[in-house]
Design brief:
Elements: E1 8-10, H1 24-36, E2 40-41, H2 55-67, H3 84-96, E3 102-104, H4 115-129, E4 136-140, H5 142-145, H6 151-160, E5 165-170, H7 175-182, E6 189-192, H8 195-201, E7 209-210, H9 214-231, H10 233-236, H11 241-247, H12 252-264, H13 281-294, H14 301-304
Parallel strand pairs: 1-2, 1-7, 3-4, 4-5, 5-6
Helix pairs in contact: 2-3, 3-4, 4-6, 11-13
């Protein structure tokens, strides 16, 4: 694990009001709870519904995090967008906020794109930000973007910008691809997108995970990373794997919001922005039954402060 990055990051869920505006106070409360569990904040990740948030709203939420006194060192904001200008603006704001790294999607509208085109995009970002404090974790989620982060692209970027390109998040779920990333070595940091995959690869160089379920199970995941050094990864991650498997049976954003709503007593947590829709009652009951079966309960800030 790198000393300047954390082992577990949550793509922080974004709570919404009844009019689907962002509930900033609840967002900050959830960020505080995650930091208290020693987890990092990958705000504006996929599970944050970031693609449904405007640049202006992301800037306001980031400013709110800073104003709330949440340490910048806990941040790994998702700053990638199809628009290079928007990516530059949000990335500059993240660097100014003290984030030790940013998570950057490739531009995903135009297809097909070449390695050279993607390298120009990331290179233009790095040169526009113009800071040696900018550290980029490339975001590979081809099932959403249709634009993979290839080994060729990584090698090209590391050759041109060795101080800025530091790692990759692999959300593909493809173990062969994850293994290819791990083979890069030479200090290149690989973050699987689930604690299950981290448990399989932490002994082979994976440095941590950026996992949706950190939103509801952060402490257990951090403890698993720590325990893996003494009891081994198989035993250490045995307790967290069933929780991840539970949520993977459902649309994950909606299921995590149901869990937080149920255990905090705040039904507004369930709200998602279109085009997503909330789980119907049948799915909610199925989720509750499955949660009860494995004895899972997330601990929310509201419960801890009660």
């Amino acid at each position: 694990m790198s000393p300047d990055l954390l082992s577990v990051y949550a793509p922080v869920l974004t709570p919404f009001n009844s009019d689907l505006s962002c509930n900033t106070a609840k967002f900050i409360e959830h960020c505080r709870w995650l930091v208290a569990q020693d987890a990092g904040l990958a705000i504006f990740g996929t599970n944050s519904e970031a693609a449904s948030l405007s640049l202006r709203k992301k800037r306001k939420l980031l400013d709110s995090v800073v104003e709330a006194g949440i340490p910048g060192k806990t941040l790994m904001p998702g700053t990638g967008a199809c628009s290079l200008e928007e990516t530059i603006e949000l990335t500059c704001a993240a660097v100014d906020a003290g984030a030790p790294a940013v998570l950057v999607l490739p531009p995903f509208f135009f297809k097909p794109v070449t390695t050279d085109g993607l390298a120009r995009y990331y290179g233009s970002l790095i040169e526009a930000v113009g800071s040696d404090r900018l550290k980029i974790v490339l975001y590979h989620i081809p099932q959403f973007t249709g634009v993979p982060i290839t080994i060729e692209l990584i090698e090209t970027l590391r050759r041109r910008y060795p101080a800025n390109i530091i790692g990759v998040k692999d959300s593909s779920g493809d173990r062969d691809n994850l293994n290819r990333y791990l083979e890069i070595g030479d200090g290149f940091r690989v973050f699987p997108a689930s604690e299950i995959l981290l448990g399989e690869t932490i002994g082979r160089g994976a440095v941590g995970c950026i996992s949706a379920t950190a939103n509801v199970n952060a402490r257990a995941m951090v403890d698993a990373v720590l325990a893996s050094a003494t009891v081994g990864a198989t035993e250490a991650f045995a307790a967290v794997a069933p929780v991840r498997s539970l949520f993977q049976q459902f649309p994950m954003i909606q299921a995590m919001k149901v869990a937080l709503a149920r255990h905090s007593g705040d039904a507004s947590w369930r709200a998602v922005r279109p085009p997503l829709v909330e789980l119907d009652q049948q799915a909610v009951q199925k989720f509750i039954a499955a949660s009860t079966e494995i004895g899972f309960k997330p601990w929310s800030a509201a419960l801890e402060n009660a």
